[in-house]
Amino acid sequence: MDESQHKPYRARDFAKLAGVTVRTLHHYDRLGLLKPRRNGAGYRLYAARDLERLEHIVALKFLGVPLKQIKTLMARERIELPDALTRQRRVLEEKRRLLDNAIAAVRDAETALRSGQRSDAAALKKIIEVIEMQSDTEWAKKYYSEEARATIDERKRLWSPELQERVSKEWSDLFRDVEAALDEHPASEKAQALAERWTKLVEGFTGGDPEVAKGLNNLYKDRANWPTHVQQQMQPYSNQKVWAYMSQVMAERKRNRSEP
Amino acid sequence: MDESQHKPYRARDFAKLAGVTVRTLHHYDRLGLLKPRRNGAGYRLYAARDLERLEHIVALKFLGVPLKQIKTLMARERIELPDALTRQRRVLEEKRRLLDNAIAAVRDAETALRSGQRSDAAALKKIIEVIEMQSDTEWAKKYYSEEARATIDERKRLWSPELQERVSKEWSDLFRDVEAALDEHPASEKAQALAERWTKLVEGFTGGDPEVAKGLNNLYKDRANWPTHVQQQMQPYSNQKVWAYMSQVMAERKRNRSEP
DNA sequence: CTTGACTCTGACGTTACGTCATACTCGACG
DNA sequence: CGTCGAGTATGACGTAACGTCAGAGTCAAG
Q1: A93, B107 in Cβ contact below 8 A?
Q2: Burial class (CB in 10 A: 0-12, 13-18, 19+), A142
Q3: Cβ-contact B177, B114 below 8 angstroms
Q4: Chain B within 8 Å of A51 (Cβ-Cβ)?
């Protein structure tokens, strides 16, 4: 006599109610995400309570959370949901960054195609540049600790294309200046000024985080195994004399700072 | 004796050169996207020209173009690439819009969770609201012509959440005002003022496009088959007296305007 | 009791590869 | 010349989240 026991829904109606398909209900049933009652003939019978659960599933799915995670998440919900949401937001924000890059790349390519009457190949090259910039942050991941990667992902949000542009230029300027100063004594004022610029630029990437710095070190030491196209890209910086010289200069810098 | 014939690459090296995996090369080979020469033993031998093609593939893939389309696109390239790029940009921009919504939804949910000490269920409800808002634009597509959909997609970019909010409120205000004015004569000044507001709001959506208006009409006529949750959402607007009355008022309006 | 509308359970298709497993091949070293 | 480690080839299964039949049973109205 419980008036609150509404007549249960069958698949079709329940699906419409929640805005999903019947097949989706089957799927979630098999995965154990949402197991409704059955009648004698095996028909699925969904109650009002099931709707709530399904809505939660749909909500999380909407955020791009994989069904497997949704399942574990809903098993012991209370504790982990806030964290899960925050993590998922990070993921979404990263995706948006990539999307923004892609959109910008297409815009560039379109402009190149229309205004300049350039070839298809030239237009695609524009896109390739953007890819390389961002995939470079992908393959390099293995050199960083989990912790360092998290830090980098944080800081990456501050990296606008303009900043990227500027930093690139600063590195190339600095490198050229160092090459012109290889004869200076490592302890000289001029050399130490270069060291200062160098350090600033490195810190611009590491943000002062020692974990990140360590990863960067790993990355550099393994430079022989970098992807070929990255090596080509880094070719302007391949002059070993510069690196050797800078390591001397940095050693001097350390001495100066420990005994001022 | 052709110096330009560099030694061809084998899979591993070529893959590194382009920043993909060997397996990817196999895959593209099987799909017919990139078929390199083979040596006597069946080893794949990639030439410099292949690199260019692979880079183009990677570029388009980066933009989210499916491999099948890439294949047809590269078969007869020159003509279709610009259009393809523009179309793909539209797709990307739409994805970005959805992502923005999702991120905003999570932010809301996080705030609700932290500040208000609300339950998980309440937080997820926030997200559900956002989903329904945007999936509503999904299921309704079938009522519109291809042309109308394109127009809507165009205009959708102007639809900020704030605008959405405001328009919702205007509709609900208008509906309430009409309900209160059902006794007014359809030709009366008061009724005609309501008709004016009504028309403005509809035009705010159609943008004056007759194709879109037609689709909207189809949509309304088939309201019996709308998804249940949409019907619930539309319930505040289900008062048939209002619709009947407004159709009279709109008829008067047409007469007035044809014989001023 | 008949029908048309629904439902059930497989099972294969989709996308762009990753990941084995098994069998060859290449090139340097002794 | 033989061999061994590194690289390669093919085939087949796995992934995520369902879509789309196919074949068979069920429900409810007339």
Answers
A1: no
A2: exposed
A3: no
A4: no
Given an 8 Å threshold on Cβ–Cβ distance, is B63 in contact with A121? Answer: no
B74 touches A: beta carbon within 8 Å: no
- Indicate left, alpha or beta for A142 from its phi (over 0: left) and psi (-120 to 50: alpha): alpha
Structure pTM? 0.72
Q: Which of residues 9-68 of A touch strand D (CB under 7 A)?
A: 21, 23-24, 27, 39-43, 61, 66-68
Q: Does A62 reach chain B within 8 Å, measured CB to CB? A: yes
Of all nucleotides, the one whose C1′ comes closest to residue B43's CA is D8
pLDDT at A23 over 50: yes
Residue B131 touches chain A, beta carbons under 8 Å: yes
Strands B37-38 and A37-38: unpaired
Task: List all residues 6 or more positions away from A51 whose beta carbon is below 8 Å from its beta carbon.
Answer: A14, A17, A18
The pair of three-digit structure tokens given for residue A164, joined into one six-digit string: 């990227």
Q: How many Cβ atoms sit within 10 Å of the Cβ of residue B141?
A: 14
B19/A124 touch (CB, cutoff 8 Å), yes or no: no
Question: What is the spatial distance, in angstroms and rounded to an integer, between the CA atom of B81 and the C1' atom of D10?
Answer: 34
Classify A117 as helix, strand or coil.
coil
Residue pointed to by tokens 């389309």: B69
pLDDT band at A163 (very low <50, low <70, confident <90, very high): confident
Asked if B17 and A110 come within 8 Å (Cβ–Cβ), the reply is: no
Q: Please compute the mean of the pLDDT values over residues A180-190 and round it to a whole number.
A: 94
Beta bridge pairs of residue A37: A45
d(C-alpha A109, C-alpha A106), whole Å: 5
Map residue B116 onto helix, strand or coil. Answer: coil
Which residues of chain B carry a pLDDT beneath 70?
1-5, 77-78, 117-118, 133-139, 161, 259-260
Closest residue by Cα to residue A123 from B143, B254, B88: B88
3 state SS for chain A: CCCCCCCCECHHHHHHHHCCCHHHHHHHHHHCCCCCEECCCCCEEECHHHHHHHHHHHHHHHCCCCHHHHHHHHHCHHHHHHHHHHHHHHHHHHHHHHHHHHHHHHHHHHHHHHHHCCCHHHHHHHHHHHHHHHHHHHHHHHHCCHHHHHHHHHHHCCCCHHHHHHHHHHHHHHHHHHHCCCCCCCCCHHHHHHHHHHHHHHHHHHCCCHHHHHHHHHHHHCHHHCCHHHHHHCHHHCCHHHHHHHHHHHHHHHHHHHCC
Q: Using one digit for the tens of pLDDT, what is the confidence trace for B81-94?
A: 888 888 899 889 98
